[in-house]
Amino acid sequence: MKNLDWFGNWYNKQTLKNEGTKFDIKITSQEDSGWELVVDLSRTEFAKKEYQTSSKKSEHNFYEIFISDKKFIGKSDFSKLDFLIGKFREFIGEAEMKYSIKKDYFLTQDIQRFIFENENDDYIYSHYTESKAFAENIIKSGFEFFNSFDKTTDELKNDTVELNYSHYRRKPYGDYIVIISISKKLYKYYSEKISHKKERYIRIEEILCEKDTYYNDGDEVNTLSNKFVKGFVNYRTGEIIKNPDFNSDFNSELFEKQFKKLL
């Protein structure tokens, strides 16, 4: 059973056991750090049990777990809420096996440098996918998006707290992060062209396509040119794959034709 589902069931059992008495669990987020899990043990058989463990690799890669005043207290960065619950599950002896953290290299210097080396000149986006083959195909053939580019991408800012939160939300979709980078000058060029046309709302990404739009079960599918795909990273292993055809400034006559089609 997944830790969060298990946690809900465990809490329900405890409230039934202690019907009519207060039983507190608190999960809160700290804006500048991460998660805090507090479980009141005072009315459980674990009230006198001791436990303490911690790890701190950086300001944004850490956890600390301890018992204080008959409370299980766990603190961590934004990526480790499930880990904290897993550790609590282990603490009370209901884990099938010890719960450990999978390696995560997303915030390492090499990956961050790869993502943000042109942050002053480009808009940068991420897309998570489950397999290396999918990521390689995006490098080769471009990035397909259904109806809206924003649906499966996040714009990335070089802010560790925001990155950690975005990564935590998206990482269930896969271990591979495709990095898309589009020149701000190119964006401005087409934004100015669009501003003179009031017929319909057009996203810049809909223009930057070298392939024709097609429809899949009624959904409009556009393919962003592979020239804007910088490459991808595997945040579990730290692997970085670069696209040899990447050019965030790339412009094409096909984009101009696409623009006219969209009017």
SSE topology:
Elements: H1 3-17, E1 25-29, E2 34-40, E3 52-58, E4 61-68, E5 71-77, H2 81-91, H3 109-116, E6 122-129, H4 132-141, E7 143-146, E8 154-155, H5 160-170, E9 176-183, H6 184-195, H7 204-207, E10 214-216, E11 219-224, E12 229-234, E13 240-242, H8 253-262
Antiparallel strand pairs: 1-2, 2-5, 3-4, 4-5, 6-8, 6-9, 7-11, 9-12, 10-11, 12-13
Integer-rounded radius of gyration: 23 Å
What is the succession of H and E elements?
Answer: HEEEEEHHEHEEHEHHEEEEH
Domain module tally: 2
Low-confidence stretches: none
What share of residues are in beta strands? Answer: 25-35%
The portion of residues assigned to helices is 25-40%
Strands in their spatial order, largest beta sheet: 1-2-5-4-3
Structural features:
five-stranded antiparallel β-sheet; 2 domains; alpha+beta; single chain; 263 residues
Describe this structure in words.
The radius of gyration is 23 Å and the shape is elongated. The chain is an alpha+beta fold. Helix 1 (3-17) crosses helix 2 (81-91). The protein starts with a helix and ends with a helix. The protein is built from 8 helices and 13 strands. Strands 1-2-5-4-3 form a 5-stranded antiparallel β-sheet, with helices on one face. Strands 8-6-9-12-13 form a 5-stranded antiparallel β-sheet, with helices on both faces. Strands 7-11-10 form a 3-stranded antiparallel β-sheet. The longest helix has 15 residues, at 3-17. It folds into 2 domains: 3-91, no CATH class; 109-262, no CATH class.
